[in-house]
Amino acid sequence: MVWLVLAAFAATGASIAVPLVVQRVVDGPIVDGDATGLWWLGGLAAVFGLIEAGLIFIRRWTQAASALGMETTIRNDVYAHLQRLQIGFHDQWQSGQLLSRVTADLSVIRRFLSFGLVFLIVNTATYVTVVALLIHLRWPLGLLVAASAIPLFIMSRRFSRAYIAASRRMQDELGDVATLVEESAQGLRTIKAFGRRPFMAKRFGREARQLHDTAIGKGRLLALSSARFDLVPNLTLAVVLVAGAATVAAGGMTLGQLVAFVSLQLMLIWPIESLGWIIANAQEAMTAADRIYEVLDTPPSIVDRPGAVAVAEARGRVRFEAVSFTYPGTETPVLRRIDLDVCPGETLAIVGATGCGKTSLVSLMPRLYDVTGGRITLDGQDIRDIQLGSLRRLVGVAFEDPTLFSMSVRENLALGRRETTDDEIHEALGVAQAEFVYDLPWGLDTRIGEQGLSLSGGQRQRLALARAVIGRPRVLVLDDPLSALDVHTEALVEEALARVLHGTTALLVVHRPSTVALADRVALLAGGEVAAVGTHSELLETVPAYRAALSAEADADAEPGPGGNVERSGALSLGGIDDVFSR
């Protein structure tokens, strides 16, 4: 940036020197009829022109590289900060608003760094230098030109106040439109299935029209201000021409001085005309910077504690000690005084009605959220005292609603472990019954598309499960990862999981009674509290609420079959659950 500004100043200096050379030409060789002197001074003016052209090339080339470099650096910083921010932050923000900050807002800042900032510095210096030269050439006319800055200053202040509000409003509305587009793209199947395309189009059209009207209003402000900024120097120039001609006729200044004066004053027209654009660009960059700092100024709440240690290995003993949890921005606790002790290698199933806090409980283990009371320990050590990177290498996670990325199958699986071999991938795919990937056009190298929408729900769940088990984590958190599987595939996956879970501590959220077969013990959650803990048989015999919860799950999964018979899609009657254990 320093070299950029220096090159711009040097180019401006070369352009200012040309009118002074013209003065010498008019008052010297032209008046005296000296052809030789005319050629020498004409050549000098040409040299200054070539120097200016070369310096402008250097400035443009440098400013593009520097501005793009700064934009890239800021974008990397914002993206990295978004990755560090807790899940609670992303729950409260629209993804389209974040997207517009990382793309559109940074482009606005880059444009200001490329042109607006440079021209602001150079044009200001040019204005001051030229006005000083004009006062030196003819001080009454020079002071007149200097006085024209007063109305320009008043107009720029009024314009700035109005334009900054319009810029912020437009950038916020742009984020809203981006959110609508993203939601419509992700929910296209739902929109089509319900025949709501006209409704969504009308909704989008309303938001787009509002953005259009705001942009038109902003353009009207800029056009009106540009016209006013253009009027002042032209009126001043008209006065200077008339007064200057009269002064030359009276012998108060030479013709060469008048030519130089007018030439220098013409150099002020562009800085003044561009003033409205520069102010507009600066205001947009200011509001864009404010929007970006709304993200960067949000501190991550889930971070390594001072003195947090890296843990490479763990036995896998997990304890929840008087754990309570309340979602950020709410006051009602989701979990209250949870006490659980899971031995190394044990599988604990978590059962309960919808909304009782099962998913919230297991989300605390990899610190997607932090407890608001009590603590969770791994091998006796508070998980907040373990470095996040280490903790999340020790804890594998698979959710009911799997997230796949627009990358190859191999890359999606590798998210579960940085370094994987083909044998480990093959084993994980076998556990998840996801060998279908080998039948895809390019096998493991097949790109599966955004959100994995080219795959069925069951296929996405199986890939997510394979990703969770590929690293053989010491603690495995499974939030009902089999809900989208058919009965046959579910049985095969459960059989393979039973082998994987041997020796691995697992927290298993259960919505389907058949999945209870994988657990050594069961914890029943009710109203955010642990109502009972025991084996499946013990709870089935002694806890009516447990029987009711399993019955509700079984009924929810029941589907009418041919002839009106009820077929269980992976769910079993209470009497049939014991058959699972014997199987």
SSE topology:
Elements: H1 2-32, H2 35-84, H3 87-92, H4 95-137, H5 139-147, H6 149-186, H7 188-193, H8 197-249, H9 255-266, H10 269-273, H11 275-296, E1 318-325, E2 335-342, E3 347-352, H12 358-363, E4 373-378, E5 381-382, H13 388-394, E6 395-398, H14 409-414, H15 422-431, H16 457-469, E7 475-479, H17 487-501, E8 505-509, E9 521-526, E10 529-534, H18 536-542, H19 544-557, E11 558-560, E12 566-568, H20 574-582
Parallel strand pairs: 3-8, 3-9, 6-7, 7-8
Antiparallel strand pairs: 1-2, 1-4, 4-5, 9-10, 11-12
Number of alpha- plus pi-helical segments: 20
The shape, in one word, is elongated
Distance between the termini: 73 Å
Number of domains: 2
The helix content, as a percent range, equals 55-70%
Spatial strand order of the main sheet: 6-7-8-3-9-10
CATH homologous superfamily descriptor of the largest domain: ABC transporter type 1, transmembrane domain
Largest sheet: 6 strands, mixed
What amount of the residues lies in strands? 5-15%
Number of strands: 12
CATH topology of the largest domain: ABC transporter transmembrane region fold
Quote the average pLDDT.
Answer: 83
Low-confidence stretches: 556-583
The CATH architecture name of the largest domain reads Up-down Bundle
What is the CATH first-level class name of the largest domain? Mainly Alpha
Radius of gyration over all CA atoms, rounded: 36 Å
Structural class: alpha/beta
InterPro entries: AAA+_ATPase, ABC1_TM_dom, ABC1_TM_sf, ABC_transporter-like_ATP-bd, ABC_transporter-like_CS, P-loop_NTPase, Type_1_exporter
Main location: membrane
GO molecular function: ATP binding
Transmembrane segments: 37-58, 112-135, 141-160, 231-252
